[in-house]
């Protein structure tokens, strides 16, 4: 059967296990879900669609409690929910969480999906449907779930002309031309998908912002989107162009301490709230890569952020101020600049400002150490920014499941307050007692039929939502859930796809940037290898700046003998990395300039190890191809062929990466590729 992938993980196919199907049918064919609020109606629609698909039969929604097997609501929307002894669990569920329990009513077994708020009910319904889509036993349910971060966001880098910066899945899904009056069904399906994984905020515009989005005409369009998203618990955020007061406000300056400028933003923000009463706030990129910002007026990031914060505070809006800053005027290691600018401002931001920090100190590489800002700003809420769109990871032609990358950062120990001070604890607020907590992913979504171009790109969107809700979920759990919902529940299928997914990130690191290499992708577009490139318009955009290969060795010395970037970490972290003999090898060339002859843990020298890794990377892609081919009978034809073709592209490009990097680095190492690696290539 053909499948275009549009339904994402919300497919609701008939349960293909007859025992389970009859259990499910016995358990939930009549539902009591009273209430008429938009979120409860959305929950009801979803439940109806989901159950009818999964059970293959009509589900009756009762007007009364009698005979209902599934009872859904809040203590306010349903007296039955109020009567159940759930107060203990509900107190743990908070504003957005939910409780799903098997219980009894008048001696009859029922299942209750309960929450304190209507949006919690919707999340509970999605969770319940997920249990059935992944074929779990629903006979003894006792789930209490609440999100670990408060702001769970998808950031679109979508321009107003519908191009998407670093977007590889078509054009923007926002059709500004037909908004506000034409509501594409896609907006609703987008909101459903996000709500199903707990995403509660969307930044709809590019960080390289266009001030036009703040004009009256566009705000009406944004308001129409906000109306679609509201029932799904999703707030809209915009990117704020710092120079907007000049560009659309006719002022002479955008100085954040100028009274007129402050008034202009206050009026603008008030205007936004009259259109969108629950507007979430702004994401701001300032004084970064040529964007305007407070430093243009010799003011600090705090001066800039607090200007917005003050105007947003009465409306409960927030500012997400990005820490992705660097300039080529400074001779410093580019990696040191964010910490240098932000660390001194710790404690200087208003309490509705969060600093949004990319996971690593550079820029969304296949592997980076965690950003040293995590653990360094205890008085400031920090959000993490991941990139779902695969700017440096082979665009949407390479299969890379990013949960292991995300988890590696979450589990990293900052040692801010001794051992166990993980990035996850910084983010969920538990380490420093922060109330403003958040996780964001730069969208990989476009108007391609299947949303993300590569069918497996959907898994990264899914992962972001699931980890923002619960950072303790493992990569394997997330892969398992996603495969079951997206492709099906048969064991060989689930086992094989899960295995492919879990190995894919390390495969990519090996064939692109093994042993801590970074930023050696093609100049500007960042696709394919170009470690030789040295003609960029600024030095710190040149791959040669990052790998520093010479006749002695390769790698960037960031120890005290080099740029001393390592000094930005806690002493315990520094210690792990600063000794060339104990530094984990996956970060070796990130922190050290290492001799080609250096002996590695495997006993090979560095050059041989580099060869070994590049060859291993290609081999892993070939293993993935074989694994996928074994699934031909278990996956629908269309998606099977798509993935098969994409894996063939990935294999070819892995070879391209391996061969060109090794040939280039060989001009420095002057050593042969170990003959045993030189197997004939299969294409
Ligand atoms: C990367 C990317 C840019 C983007 C920037 C950012 O450098 O290449 O396109 O604007 O990140 O995150 O601001």
TrEMBL record:
Highest taxon of the lineage: Bacteria
Enzyme class: hydrolase
One CC-aspect GO term: extracellular region
The keyword Hydrolase is assigned to this record: yes
GO biological process: xylan catabolic process
EC id: 3.2.1.131
Pfam families: Glyco_hydro_67C (PF07477), Glyco_hydro_67M (PF07488), Glyco_hydro_67N (PF03648)
Domain Alpha glucuronidase N-terminal: 8-128
Domain Glycosyl hydrolase family 67 catalytic: 132-451
Catalytic residues identified in the record: 289 (proton donor), 363 (proton acceptor), 391 (proton acceptor)
Reactions catalysed according to its record: Hydrolysis of (1->2)-alpha-D-(4-O-methyl)glucuronosyl links in the main chain of hardwood xylans
Domain Glycosyl hydrolase family 67 C-terminal span(s) in chain numbering: 452-675
Keywords: Carbohydrate metabolism, Glycosidase, Hydrolase, Polysaccharide degradation, Xylan degradation
InterPro entries reported in the protein's UniProt record: A-glucoronidase_C_sf, GH, Glyco_hydro_67_aGlcAse, Glyco_hydro_67_aGlcAse_N, Glyco_hydro_67_C, Glyco_hydro_67_cat, Hex-like_dom2
Gene Ontology MF terms: alpha-glucuronidase activity; xylan alpha-1,2-glucuronosidase activity
Gene3D superfamilies in alphabetical order: Alpha-glucuronidase, C-terminal domain, Chitobiase/beta-hexosaminidase domain 2-like, Glycosidases
Keyword Hydrolase annotated: yes
Family: Belongs to the glycosyl hydrolase 67 family.
Subunit (UniProt): Homodimer.
Protein name (Swiss-Prot/TrEMBL): Xylan alpha-1,2-glucuronidase
Species in which this protein is naturally found: Segetibacter aerophilus
